[in-house]
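Entry 14. Structure prediction run on the chain below.
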Amino acid sequence: MAFFRLNKAVFGVLLALTGQAQAAETLEQAWQAAVQASNALRAEARRVGAAGEQVKAAEAAAGPTLKLEGSWTQLDSTPQARIDLTPMTQGLGPLAARLPSSVDAPLSSNHLGVADARLSLPLYTSGRLQALRDAALSSEDAARQGLTQAEQELRLQVAEAYFNVLRAGHAHDVARQYLASLESYQRDVGNFFRKGVVARGDLLGAEVAVADARQKQIVAAQAKALSRAAYNRLLGRAFTQEVALAEVDWPRETRPRAQLAAMADRQRPELAALARWRDALEANARSVKAEGGPQVGAYAAYSYADNPYLVNKGYGSLGLGVSWTLFDSGLIRARAAGVSEQAQAMADQLQEAKSLVALDVERAASAELESAERVTVAQSALKSADEYLAIQRDRYRNGLANQTEVLAAEARRADSQRNLYNARYDHALAVVRLKRATGEL
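Output returned:
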């Protein structure tokens, strides 16, 4: 039974540890939560939706259109026509003198109702409608690239906040360990002082060091709370909600920088968006230019007039319509040239962006290399700081070192711990920024 209770207790501990491990939020989970909570991404998604509706509008412009029109008019008098009867009375002799020379006949009643149904279809537009559709499709693609860019920027922000939480948490742990170590040292000094081994100045120095360590712990605790609040805001949570984050261990980048730069040129959404905006402007220029060409359309119509004096109140018709602007004082040409200049400006902006992206990749790769090297150096420095602190404490107990040397060793060890954590999270962030620079994030 005792064995069973022991196994049950061990199982409970393992289950608790497993539950804690499962509760730790990964960076990928943080990204997913931030994407779901982001108002900025929802706004970008709506822009994509709006661009999609513009594509539908451009496609619908090439289809048939059915219009129904109607009107009702009240006149102040009845429309009449005066008919000359003279040609009809010639040759009637004396009888013609007794007949009127003209007669007034009503054309309609004093109120008039008219209805019209017209089905029209553009047959030829000199490429205007096709250019409009091309411009709308390019604009939609550009909007999609803008959504991708916004999501990558959000992922980078979440990664920065994620690593800041881990960094602040470890900084707080280092501050607590530093305080605990100094408190232990203070107890040792107190014991030495009571035995008359050290002077009162050493005891006061230890107390001052402990007080300073407590202040650093308070600062570290506030930094931890603020980093948690910034992280929770990005994920749409309460600022004070507790978080447990999984550690990260990114491998070092081994791909050559030329390959990274080529990837960025192909994958960065900013470059793709600029290229598609350029294409949209070029298509718009073609559409404006096509307005000066012949426009041909067909129509079928049925009209109805509520006129009691008409034999047939309704009639149908079929026809072709042609419109061709031969001269407009250069208006269309100037408008098309203006849009073309905008397209060229976008092309120049694209070339500038490519140069900046290449520089961004170079900086990110350099930062990744630097932070990776710092991790190696910091690990070695921490090992040396641990050993140096143990030596100084032992020397102090044996009267071979003064208090200044011990406190300096304590501070060096705490600094070495912080440097190691900073280097690790700087490297993790540098990897994420490199992925953002190449468009992989």
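Residues 1-21 have pLDDT under 50 and may be disordered.
Filed with the rest of this week's runs.
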